[in-house]
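Exercise 7 asks you to align residues with tokens for two separate proteins.
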Amino acid sequence: MIFLLRIQFLKLKNWLTRSTTGETLKTGGFALLGLLFLVLLYFGFVRVLSALRAVEIIGALLLLKILSMAFLTTFFMIVFSSALAAFTTLFFARDLSMLIHTPLPHRTLFFFKSLETAVFSSWMVMVALVPFLGAYGRVTGQGAGFYFLLMGLGIPFAWTASALGIGLSMTLMSVFPARRVREVMLTLAILIGTGLFLWARWAAPARFVRADNLEVIIQYIAQLEAPTAPYLPSWWMSLAVSSYAAGRLGEVLSYGALLGAVAVAAGALLVAFGERAYYSGWAAAQEGGRRRTVTPLGREWRWIPRFFSTRVRALLGKDFAIFRRDSNQWSQLLMLMSIVAVYLISIRKLPLDTPYLRGLVSFLNIGMVGFVLASVALRFVFPEISLEGRAWWVLRAAPMSLWSVLGGKFLSGFLPLSVVGVVLVWVSNAFLHVDPFVVWLSNGTVFVMAGALAGMGVGFGALFPRFNLENIAQIQTSAGGMIYMVAALFYVGLTLSLEAVIMRLYYYSRVAGRSLWSWEPVVLVGAALLVVNLVAVAGPLLMGKAHLERADI
């Protein structure tokens, strides 16, 4: 174990010592930008949680319910992320072909790779939870001990979730043929997404917004008092945190001890399972897949319109073929579609009685769709450059410019993003029955936003390439992925703020019964949006292209 840890330490040391001053300053600047975004989230959560705590009778129950839902969501995100990451880290990592034949016991190697999987699959999720927990501590008036408690409990909490995900991947590798495991994960993703959809459709939380039904309110309070998944570590974590906030230290110790004991037991069971099944699973993973017939030249991209150049058509066809053959990406895509379906059902069931309220929700829906598109681009567009891996030199040696390569990557990301965004906004507006002006404004905005987010994804992906990755999950959870997400959300928020001026003029005109439009603010907003989108697309693409030209790859 010490030998393996030393290897990781040397990797980190080499990365730190070989970084140039410019790269260090760039990484530090973007890290500060990410920290600023977390701080803004913190203050936003403070306002929301303060308002919820001030609610009469049910304020404390609301805080506990939101806390438990946050931990439950985090728990399942880590489980699913670690299950996907374990396939690459435990069975397909490039260094395994060397390490598996060293004198190291397979148990030691498995435990080390499990720890590596747990770190890569949980650190970003846990960091995203920090602003919420910090706001909870401030609203409830906690001191430094509260945050030390969170750090102490967070380790067994994240490890238990990661151990479950790793155990799931090990079980699938033991039961199913190696080449069929990803198809099994695809089926599980469909089942999970369908379950989420049915749960949201059955729960219909919007019905509790109406306060004219006493029976419904009593049922609502009963739901708040009921435990959320009481047999999962997320509920124990919630009770430990809320008990500390309430001064019940005895309950904190009991639930903390329970978390620690379960984490130790999960680790012991995982190691025992890995000692029996890891090597056979790794050996099965090295077997060749089923034979594929060779696709004739041009077959993969003959469906692409001919107004694109031949080189761009070839790049688009290659990326589409890679995506079509990777069931791992299909599983995540279906999960995304399930979450989108839940969101649309939530929009459909909102109790909106006035056209102005429907218009406001439709306008805010632009921001929500922008967030969804940014998340999709983080998973499917940002990694496109890095996914070329060792074959990147083939594209660089091909008779095409680097702009052609980046342009092909941009188109392969923009086309699906624009379709998803426009369909999502169009269906939402159909549910809300908003005015035609709002419909066309939101659709046009999301279409432009899809192009900007795709350009930013390709640009930041070229600026922070990870060609020598050990795990595909390391791409979007890297510092570059976090920086892209911060920049994308800032762009979406700025676009929404500028277009709020247009929406205000439109609804002021409707209320007044006469036109209050003025060309000065419209022109200024249009010019500002043009500049914002040009900077958002051209800036990352230019920097990414320059980095790829300078990098010794």
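Second protein for Exercise 7:
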Amino acid sequence: MNLFIRSAVAVAVSAAMGSAAHALDRTEYASAVKVYFGGATATDNVLEEVFISTVGGICDSSLADIDIYRTTANQRVITCRVSNENTPNHGFATRASGGTMIAFHKESQGGSSNGVVPLIAVAKGQAHTLRWLEVSQLTNDCTVSNVAATANLQGYVNHAACATTALTPVDTAGSAGVAGTYDVHGGISDNEPAVAFPAPGADAQRLLSNPGLGIVFGVPVTTNLYRALQVAQFGDGSACDGSDAPNCVPSLTRSQIRSLYTQTTFDWNSIKNSAGVGLTQISGVTAPTDEFVRICRRVASSGTQASYETYFLGERCVAGVRGFALPDDASTIEDTVYSPSDFPSGSLVNAAPSSGNVRTCLAAANNGGFWGVGVLSTEVTDGNYNSGNAGFRFVGIDGAAPNLANVANGDYDFFTENTINRVSNTFAGNVGALPDGNPRREIIELIDEKLGLPSVLANLNATFDGRPWGNGGVLALSSTATPATAPYSDAELAANPVNTQTRDGNSCMPPVMVKDSPIQ
């Protein structure tokens, strides 16, 4: 059936029945170009939005509705036809020819390590354990709803809570459910493969890793703790008491944050105001359920976790340093999955498999009356922090809030430079590399290309603007373009999000300023 006719009929039927319709149904999924991707969860929002961005997006909404399938196990599949603007240089069918249908599969269960280690396994001809949602294996369309278009993002049909029973392996031939050497085509990692994860070591050279973008991280704390810090810093009854104004963001020192993350500080009363009064005992502060510090961290395979360990502690860079706090059952850190019951009075540390789980962990701690800290990127939407079960805000570090302008002006340097990874075509002995012109490789190269464009990132960052701590999100690498004139404003960074600092691809090295900088 002609796609345009079938889509129009489906929408009409949907309107009549009061439910959403999708244009790329599950029977058409078999003919799509399928890409299987693992890795970082910190940039999942940005990665998805690269496909559905109204500026330079990979998907073409003029051909058909975009469909996104999701499971409760942090899996998603984006199905659409490739935008006409992407066809000339990447060999896809043009709009006039119907467009090339693609199905981008992203697993987000193990963090950045899954954007590295499984690719190394493929390169060595070995099996791995990644599993993806196979749309053809679903018995229904899941929970369907229409997501309206915005100025920044195309509309799409959302398929939520899809059955995890449809998670199947994929062999090198691309068929579902066949035993053998399972295929994975690409991955994304918050840090460079050789440094950030549990010891890929020399095998990291088997991968081709292209720099993607700069990810700005922050220190999230439970909302009730944020309010207490405001009272301690600005005074009880001040204009900042309970305020989400940008000038009311409280701050902790880097040393205080280190002590919290390492559990050197267990008791919030170890942090005192100018009069020497412990934080829970300050007049005007609503005391927590108890005085103990809760920590919502990620599992060891997470690039987000690696970012905090390298930045604050030098862990993974230098032997013998004080390490980031482990869960109470440290022997099972890789298997620790968040549950609300993880925060009774005696449980202090939770290791979560995804950034979404960290947000849930912080919300549970906050709702239980506990004060806690976490690990999250500033790629945060309004609903992530300020609605439903959300329960956190970002604090400043040494007086600087975690936003794009502060990074550009050199006041804040907690960012990493992520990489898009695939099996190298030139490493001797590698198998599983995608040849030139392979459509899967073309899609990966499109992702890499889009993630580096300031114009695309500016459109995506608009989703993360207007937070209490300032506009957060991601930055194009300093080598890609020239920012505006120092000192840089929020508006300038919103229009042209280019980093002025670089780590030169080494997460263990402090950033250096390579663009014009203001006098502080």
